[in-house]
Amino acid sequence: xxxxxxxxxxxxxxxxxxxxxxxxxxxxxxxxxxxxxxxxxxxxxxxxxxxxxxxxxxxxxxxxxxxxxxxxxxxxxxxxxxxxxxxxxxxxxxxxxxxxxxxxxxxxxxxxxxxxxxxxxxxxxxxxxxxxxxxxxxxxxxxxxxxxxxxxxxxxxxxxxxxxxxxxxxxxxxxxxxxxxxxxxxxxxxxxxxxxxxxxxxxxxxxxxxxxxxxxxxxxxxxxxxxxxxxxxxxxxxxxxxxxxxxxxxxxxxxxxxxxxxxxxxxxxxxxxxxxxxxxxxxxxxxxxxxxxxxxxxxxxxxxxxxxxxxxxxxxxxxxxxxxxxxxxxxxxxxxxxxxxxxxxxxxxxxxxxxxxxxxxxxxxxxxxxxxxxxxxxxxxxxxxxxxxxxxxxxxxxxxxxxxxxxxxxxxxxxxxxxxxxxxxxxxxxxxxxxxxxxxxxxxxx
Length: 446
What we know:
Layout: H1 2-32, E1 34-35, E2 41-45, E3 50-57, E4 64-68, E5 78-85, E6 88-95, E7 104-111, E8 117-127, E9 136-137, E10 143-144, E11 149-156, E12 163-169, E13 176-178, E14 185-187, E15 190-197, E16 206-214, E17 217-228, E18 230-231, E19 236-239, E20 243-245, E21 250-256, E22 262-267, E23 274-277, E24 282-285, E25 296-302, E26 307-313, E27 315-317, H2 330-378, E28 389-390, E29 395-398, E30 404-412, E31 416-424, E32 439-445
């Protein structure tokens, strides 16, 4: 019995020893293969590139490292790359152009040869930018003066939320200035910004710009614009001076800044001395009289939006008729005639003086031009063609009997030449007959 108990004890110890060794071996293997420098989160701007790195230490040949789920990734945007440096191993997933659909969790998984799994999770955050079709400015109907109208602009909802703002363009310098608008509204996946205005005639053809920006990229922006067309009541003006002369016909024209309008006039003048023309747009006032002074004339223009008017007050200038000649009026008449004579003489004298001064200035200007022209001509030096001119001809002529001559030609008209010829001086040394030295002068004619 003792022997059997001893045998059972030995087998139990052996089994326990083997189990402990196996556990210790597996523990060593788990410690040997491990993650290093693993980032748990990355943030990237949409359309930029990003590298997701899974770094492992003490990797053995039988260990497997993968990015979980990458088997479903296809296309030119994704690439997988492995890099080994001894027992250090890096498995990189590259996304060349990040899309909003790429955000989420990415799991790097290690599978040892013993079947042990280890995982690390990386969360990719994508800062989104609205697509190219945004912002969208809704169509703007024709506005009516005095009636509210709403301008609406929208964008898709992304993360982070985009910012919409309404601006008005200055008609003179084209600059934009921001308008006070309500807060942005969120409707499903759309963000909307509205601007309500009560237009006037001055707002006709105003340009309104909706600008879209995002915190993702402070230098990025897009915009859309709408032009407001306003229907407004006529803006009336009367052309023609309210100051008129007695007995002289005057014409008044009623003008309205609108595409279509009907015209009418209000006045207290006798109808026999007033005539309307061109669909009541022109009023002819015949035979103004002193008693018409202070009368009001009003033009009224109307269209389908409303009506407006313009008023002027007549001021009639009363010119006196020549008084009858008599004792009481004779001195005044003579004085008036003398005054008119003196005024006419003065005007004539001033006109004659101005004419004289103008003629003197013209004569001085012409003389100045003539003087400078002659002086420039006199200072111009004339070079005449000489009867005889020289043409260099430096040459060595080989003469009979082995002698040489050097000649310099002189060119004259009709191709006549006279040459000074340098004759060779006999040298005592041989071999110097045609050298550039030892020439005497003679003359010959060709």
